[in-house]
Amino acid sequence: MFQFQKLIKSFRYAFRGLWYVTKHEQSFRLHLIAAAVVVFLMLYFHITIKEAVILSLVIAAVLVLELINTIFESLVDMLQPRIHHLAEVIKNIMAATVLIASLGALIIGILIFAPYVFH
Question: What is the structure's pLDDT at 81?
Fold first, then answer.
């Protein structure tokens, strides 16, 4: 049976996590600002629905990867608080993951917005 109170509780936990990351992670805040700029440009240029879907998926992917990066960093810090070579490797790989996704998002954004800007 559907329990509305559990659903509300789940959303509350999710928003707490989102607030924590927004408050404590500079990279996440920068990605949120970039996402806001992209949404503004989407509305300003009246892009097609297909382009809007693509940009929305890319924004979500980058933000989700940034959240996963934060999770891995926190787990590594918790499980291996002293500096360990593999802890550093894990953190660097996760940062590279977000970097690649961000660069891909930038390229997609340029490809979509260039015809509107240079028209």
Answer: 61
